[in-house]
Design brief:
Blueprint: H1 2-5, H2 11-18, E1 25-28, H3 35-42, E2 48-52, H4 56-59, E3 68-71, H5 78-84, E4 90-96, H6 101-104, H7 131-137, H8 140-150, H9 157-169, H10 175-182, H11 191-207, H12 209-223, E5 224-234, H13 237-249, E6 258-259, E7 265-266, E8 269-271, H14 281-286, E9 294-300
Parallel strand pairs: 1-2, 1-4, 2-3, 4-5
Antiparallel strand pairs: 5-9, 6-7, 8-9
Helix pairs in contact: 8-9, 8-11, 12-13
Length: about 300
């Protein structure tokens, strides 16, 4: 089932990075198709895996295993639910921050410009805000910030003007309507890359991804036990920057750690991988969606 839903990225590297103990307690913050979780379970004798995913489709994909606890919520509530489960410390935390293949390949979810469908993009189908709401209701300044900051589109003024002009006539509903506005703004020979950035920016805004990631990362300091491993795969520079800063300094927004009176760095983690671990040439062939993945591993001090 997981091979259809989502091929797990950097699977062996993640399992090695977690340094699994047979009776340990682990958290998979991004269950998705369950590929990483199922591999973790294979290495445990007893133990426990708490998985987070706010998507109903992911919940339907869970394995029947008494060692697994499924939390149908955003991973920003990590600490809250561990407290609810009477778990004070865990031995490892894994997060694969990528959108699953299932989401990209399901037209009605609206995550991909390859298919026609509604401009939805909600990870949690119970949430209010859709991509169409962003396009129809956000101010010019807010749209500009979203595409510049979350899409990293340097010259997005033409795109924003096109959105504002279009919605004066009728509201955005379908993906084809956004493409009608976006395609005239595409730089030469960069159509797919440009559209991917547009959709990325909207998805991040709809799901509050940057805020949720910051909240989750800060909580890992409190719930990881000594020598517990933090294993995170990111897919774009915005995510990777936050993860890199956090693992280096203990704060998502700091690039250098604080120092004590004697000039020694005050940090909660030590790096296990000094540089990000990238997919092998073989993995890139068998799973093209791994091409932008960066894996970082650190250990709680």
């Amino acid at each position: 089932m997981e091979d259809v839903y989502h091929v797990p990225v950097l699977l062996n590297e993640c399992i090695e990075g977690l340094k699994l103990k047979e009776g340990g307690v682990y958290v998979d913050l991004t269950f998705g198709g369950g590929g990483h979780t199922k591999e973790i379970l294979k290495h445990l004798k007893g133990g426990k895996v708490i998985v987070f995913d706010q998507d109903e489709d992911a919940y339907a994909n869970r394995p029947d295993d008494e060692r697994l606890i499924f939390v149908k919520h955003n991973f920003r509530y990590l600490k809250h639910f561990l407290r609810y489960l009477n778990i004070s410390k865990v031995d490892g935390i894994l997060a694969d921050l990528g959108v699953s293949s299932h989401h990209f390949d399901t037209p009605e979810r609206g995550f991909s410009f390859r298919f026609e469908g509604e401009l939805d993009m909600r990870m949690n189908k119970q949430a209010r805000l859709k991509a169409s709401d962003v396009l129809n209701e956000y101010s010019e300044d807010d749209l500009f910030k979203i595409f510049k900051n979350y899409g990293e589109i340097k010259h997005c003024a033409k795109l924003v003007r096109g959105i504002l002009n279009y919605r004066q006539g009728k509201p955005f509903v379908m993906i084809s309507e956004l493409l009608e506005v976006a395609e005239p703004c595409v730089p030469a020979r960069d159509k797919n890359k440009f559209l991917a950035k547009v959709f990325q920016a909207l998805r991040i805004e709809v799901n509050g991804e940057m805020e949720a990631l910051k909240e989750m990362l800060m909580q890992t300091k409190d719930v990881l036990g000594e020598e517990g491993r933090l294993v995170i795969i990111s897919y774009h520079s915005l995510e990777d920057r936050l993860v890199k800063n956090f693992m280096k300094t203990g704060d998502c927004d700091q690039t250098q750690p604080e120092k004590d009176f004697y000039g020694k760095s005050i940090v909660p983690f030590k790096a296990i991988s000094r540089k990000p671990i990238l997919p092998t040439a073989h993995e890139l062939v068998v799973n093209s969606r791994s091409r932008s993945a960066k894996l970082r591993i650190s250990e709680k001090i």
